[in-house]
Specification:
The protein has 460 residues and is α/β, with parallel strands linked by helices. It has 16 helices and 17 strands. The protein has two domains: 265 residues, Glycogen Phosphorylase B (Rossmann fold), CATH 3.40.50.2000; 174 residues, Rossmann fold. Strands 4-3-2-5-6-9-10 form a seven-stranded parallel beta sheet. A six-stranded parallel beta sheet has the order 13-12-11-14-15-16, sandwiched between helices. It is globular, with a radius of gyration of 22 Å. 49% of the residues are buried. The C terminus is likely disordered. The structure holds uridine-5'-diphosphate-glucose. The site of uridine-5'-diphosphate-glucose has 26 residues, from α1, α11 and α12. It holds the Pfam family UDPGT. Keywords: Glycosyltransferase, Transferase. Belongs to the UDP-glycosyltransferase family. Its EC number is 2.4.1.-.
C-alpha cells in the first residue's frame, strides 16, 4: 500500500510561467507526488506534449475563445479573470474530490494570489511559486509595503541585501508607468505579495548560490521561503528524469531544422538571439537588431515569432550565408549546442536561468518589466554578460549591438565571461544534485511535508 499526496499546480497562462511550473510538476511526480496541472481553458488547449503522467485541467478566465486577445486590454483581462477564476478553481477542486481525487496542496503561480484564499477555504496546503528572480521579488514587495513609490523619484535606491540600483536598473515600471496597461502589470507584480505571508510555503525558481544574501533576507521575512530551481528539463542539468529534454508545454511549434544548421557550424561560432514568448519589438528596434546581427559578421540564429515576422526589414533574408531566422526553437537544445557561443537575450527569467545553467554568456537587450534588473545582475553581479547601450529613444542601435557581439566573440572580455558562465553552470548543477544540493534538499523538505499533510489519499 502506498500513500500519495495530490498537488494541484496552477499556472498563469504564459510560456514564461507554464515552463517552470510543468518542470516543477515533473519533479514532484518523480518524488512520488500525484500532480494535476491547471491553467486557463484557452491556454491549456494550446499546449503541446504535456507528459501523460501529468493530468491537465483548466479553470476559466472568462474568455474561452481567446484569452488576452479576446479581452482587448490586459487590464480588462485581469479584472475578469480575478472575478471568474476563484469560483472556477473552487469548482475544479470539488470536481476532483467527487471523482475520488481530492487535492492536498495547491502550488499556485504567485501571480494568482487568490488561489491561496481558495486553498485556505478548503483547509489545504497553499504554496506560492515565484517565476521571477528573488531580488526582483524583493523590489516589488517593497512597493507593496509602500516603501518604494512608483514612479521612482530617487535616482538610486538601496534595499536590504541588494546592490545599490540606479533608476535604469529597476524594473521598467519604475521609469515608465504611464498607461493603464503598465499599471495593470505592475498591479499583478505587487499583488503577488498581498497575502503571501499566509502561504504555507513560498517557493522560488532560483537557486540559493545565485543570490545568497537576498535568499537569506527573504527567509527572515517568510521562514518557509525555499529556492528550488533552476526548474529546467532534467537532461540539461541533473539528468534525474529519464529522456526529459523538453518542457513539454510549448504554445509554439519548434523549427527543428535549425539544429541541423547548428550541427554544420564550427564550435563556439554562433550567436543565438531570442526575445522570449511575449514582448513585441517595434519596427525600428527590429531593424536595428537585424542589421546588428548581420553586421557582426558572425553566424547567428535568431528567433522571430510569427507575429513579429512582418516587422523584419524587407531586404533582410531569413536565410543567408551567415544567418538563420526561425519562428521558434528548442531553446535549451540550442543553448546546449557546442556551436553556440553567446546569447543575445531579452533577459526573461527563464532564459536567464537557462543560459546560466548551460554556461552560455549573454549580450543583454532587456525590454520590459523584470528583464531590466535581470540584465543588471547578469552584468554586474554574476558577470556573465554585456548590456548593449540604448540611445536617447531607448533603442539599441545596430552599431551598438554589432560592437557588443564583437567584444564577446573576439576579445578577452568574452573569454572571461564564458569562464564565469561555466562556473555558474557548475553551481546550478550542484544545487539540483541529489548529493546535498541546496535546491534538491529544499524540494525534498517540501515533498516530505506533503506526505505528512492531513487529507492523504490511500492508494492500494
Ligand atoms: O524559440 C524559443 C524561445 C523561447 N523559448 C522558451 O520560452 C521561455 C521564455 O521564457 P522567458 O525567458 O522567461 O521569457 P518570456 O516568455 O518573455 O517570459 C515572461 O515571464 C517571465 C517569468 O515570469 C519574465 O521573467 C519575463 O520578463 C516575461 O516576459 C524559455 O523557457 C525559453 O526556453 C523556447 O523554447 N524557444
Amino acid at each position: 500500500m502506498a500513500i500519495k499526496p495530490h498537488c494541484l499546480v496552477l499556472s498563469f497562462p504564459g510560456q514564461g510561467h507554464i515552463n517552470p511550473m510543468i518542470q516543477l510538476s515533473k519533479l514532484l511526480v518523480h518524488e512520488g507526488v500525484k500532480v494535476t496541472l491547471a491553467t486557463t481553458c484557452f491556454y491549456s488547449n494550446t499546449l503541446q506534449n504535456v507528459p501523460p503522467y501529468i493530468s491537465l485541467e483548466s479553470i476559466s478566465d472568462g474568455f474561452h475563445n481567446g484569452g488576452f486577445g479576446e479581452a482587448g486590454t490586459f487590464k480588462a483581462y485581469l479584472a475578469r479573470f480575478w472575478q471568474v477564476g476563484p469560483p472556477s478553481l473552487v469548482d475544479l477542486i470539488e470536481k476532483l474530490a467527487k471523482l475520488g481525487n481530492p487535492i492536498d496542496c495547491i502550488i499556485y503561480d504567485s501571480a494568482l494570489p487568490w488561489a491561496l484564499d481558495v486553498a485556505k477555504r478548503f483547509g489545504i496546503v497553499g504554496a506560492s511559486y515565484f517565476t521571477q528572480n528573488t531580488a526582483v521579488n524583493s523590489i516589488y514587495y517593497h512597493v507593496q509595503l509602500g516603501k518604494i513609490k512608483v514612479p521612482l523619484i530617487e535616482s538610486e535606491i538601496s534595499l536590504p541585501s541588494i546592490p545599490k540600483l540606479q533608476l535604469c536598473d529597476m524594473p521598467s515600471f519604475f521609469n515608465n508607468c504611464e498607461d493603464d496597461e503598465d499599471l495593470a502589470v505592475l498591479g499583478l507584480a505587487t499583488g503577488q505579495f498581498s497575502n503571501v505571508n499566509k502561504a504555507d510555503w513560498v517557493l522560488c525558481n532560483s537557486f540559493y548560490e545565485l543570490d545568497k544574501e537576498v535568499a537569506d533576507w527573504t527567509m527572515k521575512i517568510w521562514p518557509k521561503f525555499r529556492t528550488i530551481g533552476p526548474n529546467i528539463p532534467s537532461v540539461f542539468l541533473d539528468k534525474r528524469i529519464k529522456d526529459d529534454e523538453d518542457y513539454g508545454a510549448a504554445a509554439f511549434k519548434s523549427e527543428e531544422e535549425c539544429m541541423e544548421w547548428l550541427h554544420n557550424k564550427p564550435n563556439g561560432s554562433v550567436v543565438y538571439a531570442s526575445f522570449g514568448s511575449l514582448v513585441p519589438l517595434d519596427e525600428e528596434q527590429m531593424r536595428e537588431i537585424a542589421y546588428g546581427l548581420r553586421d557582426s559578421n558572425h553566424y547567428f540564429l535568431w528567433v522571430v515569432r510569427t507575429s513579429e515576422e512582418i516587422k523584419l526589414p524587407k531586404d533582410f533574408a531569413k536565410k543567408s550565408e551567415k544567418g538563420l531566422v526561425v519562428t521558434w526553437c528548442s531553446q535549451l537544445k540550442v543553448l546546449a549546442h557546442e556551436s553556440v557561443a553567446c546569447f543575445v537575450t531579452h533577459c526573461g527569467w527563464n532564459s536567464t536561468l537557462e543560459t546560466l545553467s548551460l554556461g552560455v554568456p549573454t549580450i543583454a537587450v532587456p525590454q520590459w518589466s523584470d528583464q531590466i534588473t535581470n540584465a543588471k545582475y547578469m552584468v554586474d553581479v554574476w558577470k556573465v554578460g554585456i548590456r548593449v547601450p540604448i540611445d536617447e529613444k531607448k533603442i539599441v542601435k545596430s552599431e551598438a549591438l554589432r560592437d557588443c557581439i564583437k567584444e564577446m566573440m573576439e576579445c578577452e572580455k568574452g573569454k572571461g565571461m564564458k569562464k564565469n558562465a561555466m562556473e555558474w553552470k557548475s553551481l546550478a548543477l550542484k544545487a539540483v544534485s541529489d548529493e546535498g544540493g541546496s535546491s534538491y534538499k529544499n524540494m525534498i523538505e517540501f515533498v516530505n511535508s506533503l506526505f505528512t499533510c492531513s487529507q492523504l489519499e490511500v492508494i492500494t
